[in-house]
From TrEMBL:
UniProt keyword terms in alphabetical order: Translation regulation
Organism of this sequence: Sulfurimonas lithotrophica
NCBIfam families reported in the protein's UniProt record: yfiA (TIGR00741)
GO CC terms: cytosolic small ribosomal subunit
One term of GO molecular function: ribosomal small subunit binding
Superkingdom, natural source: Bacteria
Any Pfam family matching the protein: Ribosom_S30AE_C
Domain named Sigma 54 modulation/S30EA ribosomal protein C-terminal: residues: 123-176
Gene name of this polypeptide: raiA
GO biological process assignments: negative regulation of translational elongation
Protein name: Ribosome hibernation promoting factor
Assembly description: Associates exclusively with 100S ribosomes, which are dimers of 70S ribosomes.
Cross-referenced CDD domains: RaiA
Amino acid sequence: MNISLTGRHLELTDAIKTHMTSSIETLNKYNMGITSVNVIASAQTKKGKEHSMVEFVITMAGKNSVIIKQNDDDLYAAIDIAIERAQKALRRMHDKEVDHQKVGLNTIKSEDVDVKETAEAMEDEIVPVELDLYKPREVEDVLNDLKESNKMFEIFLDNEDKTRVLYKRNDGKFGLY
């Protein structure tokens, strides 16, 4: 991996160069085939205040380049934030490559799928259940049933023909809509 460090309107000391180089070395753990990293550090004055800007251009073999620009009052902080952003971008690219299966259109076309069998198999998965929603119930009865079961909520009609929901809250209490 080629590393190019450039300073504009500021002198790069050995400590800054060491910090940049060690930060860049952490990008190797993603195995993305990084060919070169160009770092441009500059000092700018806006509205009477000095602040630092760091730009990372990460070039990878066979992939798009990653460009990260970061401004901060402190040069070391700008470098650290930019490296974190670069790591996040490389991690996302790495996860995309590793997690997604690359299936071509020809392999999908070559698979024989019987539509009727698939539809029948899906029909077997749906089991109709008779609802007890039409029976009016007392809130206390529903509360007792909910305490005894593993359910998180119960939907029922109360004596005034209103649809109500009794649910378990995270704090161990119960809520009623």
